[in-house]
Amino acid sequence: MRKKFLIILSILIAVLIIGGIYYFLTNDKSLENAEEVTYINLGVIPEISTSSAKFLNNNIYINEGGTYNISGVLINGTIFIDTTEEVNIILNKVTIVNEYGSILDNRKSKLVRIVLEKETNNILSDGINSNSTIKSISDIKISGAGDLLVYGNNQNGITVTNGGLYLDEATIYVIAKLDAFDIADSFTINSGTILGLGNDNMQMLDDKSKQNSFLFNFDNSLKEGTIIALQNDKQENIIVFEALRNFKTLTLSTPDLKMGNYYLISDVDCKSKKNNGIYESKKVNGGNKIKIGISDTFWINGINNWYGSMDILNHYVDEILM
């Protein structure tokens, strides 16, 4: 009897040991090079699951490097990054509206990655004392299969003072009173659908970009509410969007911009649903070709395809973060 008991006990111990080893192997994040995610829920009373970030005076302060998954709605608050370590921010159905200041302010980190959660819509809108909705002292990389709408209501949309901006995969629509993009170093678009509407200076793309872009400086401003289609010489519409503010400059990049002739058609009619001002269907009716100077035909012949006066070209960014 004792012998049988010892055998059973030995089997149980073996099972527990093997089970423990299996659990360790399958749950040890260090083996998978996985990083712990901090969740920040911007509810009525924001919830933060770690001490590496804190909520104070209606603002979020990130004090350590890592990955932060942010969701929910925040009114009159800013996300401040106050660590020199790399920070990854996942925007997961976020709406942040600040009547007074900026929305995301990287004051220290050497690199901030913004990832748009798949199939999510994210909206950032700054206020009267802000010089840029998103601003950073160093590199920002934005990627992901979600959507991002940025309102630069007072000055710029995205500003990087001592680094570059790198865009991949995401759908990003930036509207700014002055510059949609104001980048000191490399402005790189590798993939995704990018719209930047502004009224002041424009930013040339880095030649290392993998995706072609148009940069238009129009003769006259186009009004808020105007529906615009970009059409190729086969009369196929590449993108259809609504102007969410008055604008005079346009940065436009999509994966479908191949070498060839294109036309901008304004005042078209589109019955499709839209998300953040971009229409799901590209079927339109009517409209008029937009001219710059005497030309209404625009050619893609490389990464940067500029039309209009170049006196607004941005070479360097002002030190507006100081």
Which characteristics define this entry?
disordered C terminus, 322 residues, mainly beta, 15-stranded mixed sheet, seven-stranded mixed sheet
Strand content: over 45%
Please state the CA-atom Rg, rounded to the nearest Å. 24 Å
Which shape, going by the Cα principal axes?
globular
Mean pLDDT score, rounded?
88
Low-confidence stretches: 1-34, 315-322
Helix content: under 10%
* Helix-and-strand structural type: mainly beta
State the major sheet. 15 strands, mixed
Distance between the termini: 81 Å
Taken together, the total number of domains comes to 1
Continuous helix count: 1
According to DSSP, the number of beta strands is 31
Description:
- The strands form five sheets. The chain has a 15-stranded mixed beta sheet that branches.
- With 322 residues, it is mainly beta.
- It has one domain.
- It has one helix spanning 2-27; strands spanning 37-42, 47-48, 53-56, 59-62, 66-75, 79-81, 87-97, 104-106, 111-116, 121-125, 132-136, 139-143, 147-152, 156-160, 165-167, 171-176, 181-183, 187-189, 193-198, 202-203, 213-222, 227-232, 237-242, 247-253, 260-266, 274-275, 278-279, 288-289, 298-300, 304-307, 313-314.
- A hairpin with a 2-residue loop joins strand 26 (274-275) and strand 27 (278-279).
- It has one helix and 31 strands.
- The longest helix has 26 residues, at 2-27.
- The chain is globular.
Describe the secondary structure blueprint for this structure:
Blueprint: H1 2-27, E1 37-42, E2 47-48, E3 53-56, E4 59-62, E5 66-75, E6 79-81, E7 87-97, E8 104-106, E9 111-116, E10 121-125, E11 132-136, E12 139-143, E13 147-152, E14 156-160, E15 165-167, E16 171-176, E17 181-183, E18 187-189, E19 193-198, E20 202-203, E21 213-222, E22 227-232, E23 237-242, E24 247-253, E25 260-266, E26 274-275, E27 278-279, E28 288-289, E29 298-300, E30 304-307, E31 313-314
Parallel strand pairs: 1-5, 4-6, 5-7, 6-8, 7-9, 7-10, 8-11, 9-12, 10-13, 11-14, 12-15, 13-16, 14-17, 15-18, 16-19, 20-31, 21-30
Antiparallel strand pairs: 1-2, 3-4, 19-24, 21-24, 22-23, 22-25, 25-28, 25-29, 26-27
